[in-house]
Amino acid sequence: AQTVTQSQPEMSVQEAETVTLSCTYDTSENNYYLFWYKQPPSRQMILVIRQEAYKQQNATENRFSVNFQKAAKSFSLKISDSQLGDTAMYFCALIDGGSQGNLIFGKGTKLSVKP
Amino acid sequence: NAGVTQTPKFRILKIGQSMTLQCAQDMNHNYMYWYRQDPGMGLKLIYYSVGAGITDKGEVPNGYNVSRSTTEDFPLRLELAAPSQTSVYFCASSYSSLGAGSGELFFGEGSRLTVL
């Protein structure tokens, strides 16, 4: 069975600083996809970044980047130059390649960016 | 752009009552999903649909039913509500299969349901 573990229930960072959120996962598949989703206090969840397991290069999206360690089954999210608008719950998620529906979510990390 | 619209946003039910959570998307997405989010937990998939007329169970389907008569709408029905169904429910859609890697989930704002 696939699992996603986020070991940091809460984190805080000063505005303009860098923060890293941790995620580990387990799957028996070789082809899968990993995601980070952001859920601001308004509750509508949005995609932050996506990583294909077959790609060795770490995905980046502006201030957001990942450190994908396939052998260690680790998928951490780095937020650079943190902004107040980054305050949100962050969820790590996994889906096996070929699966049509079951995106597996971690429990989330609550990030607070302090001015 | 409306995106994914869920109604109602809040609802209180008594044990044994039934209700339907409505979900509509205007992006012409084939795939639609219902998740529930319990406090301190990640989202868990209840049901999903890969197109009109096709639905399938997710991880936690018991106590729920769905239908997909049109591409746009994917209502979730709760029969005989129980306190264990107190949760926040999220509807989501995607253009393609998430397992194909190119898909991105678009979420509604959620519906907070309390069963007393």
Observed structural traits:
A: about 120 residues; mainly beta; Immunoglobulin-like; four-stranded antiparallel sheet; 12 strands; globular; B: about 120 residues; seven-stranded mixed sheet
Instruction: Give helix % range of chain B.
Output: under 10%
Tell me the strand percentage band of chain A: over 45%
Mean pLDDT of chain B: 92
Strand content of chain B: over 45%
What is the H-and-E element order of chain A? EEEEEEEEEEEE
Strand element count of chain A: 12
CATH homologous group name of chain A: Immunoglobulins
Distance between the termini of chain A: 41 Å
Number of H/I helices of chain B: 0
Radius of gyration of chain A: 14 Å
Broad shape of chain B: globular
Number of domains of chain B: 1
Relevant CATH superfamily of chain B: Immunoglobulins
Low-confidence stretches of chain A: none
Q: How many discrete domains of chain A?
A: 1
CATH topology of chain A: Immunoglobulin-like
The number of helices of chain A is 0
Largest sheet of chain B: 7 strands, mixed
Descriptive report:
The complex is a heterodimer of chains A (115) and B (116). Chain A has no helices and twelve strands. Helices cover 0% and strands 52% of the residues of chain A. Chain A has 115 residues and is an all-beta fold. In chain A, strand 5 (32-39) and strand 6 (46-52) form a beta hairpin. Chain A has one domain: Immunoglobulin-like (Sandwich), CATH 2.60.40.10. Chain A has strands at residues 3-5, 10-14, 19-21, 24-26, 32-39, 46-52, 60-61, 64-69, 74-79, 88-96, 104-105, 109-114. Chain B has 116 residues and is mostly beta strands. Chain B has a single domain (4-115), classed as Immunoglobulin-like, CATH 2.60.40.10. Chain B is built from no helices and eleven strands. Chain B has strands spanning 4-7, 10-13, 19-25, 31-37, 43-51, 54-57, 64-66, 76-78, 87-94, 106-107, 111-115. The mean pLDDT of chain B is 92. Chains A and B meet through strand 6, strand 10 and strand 11 of A and strand 5 and strand 9 of B.
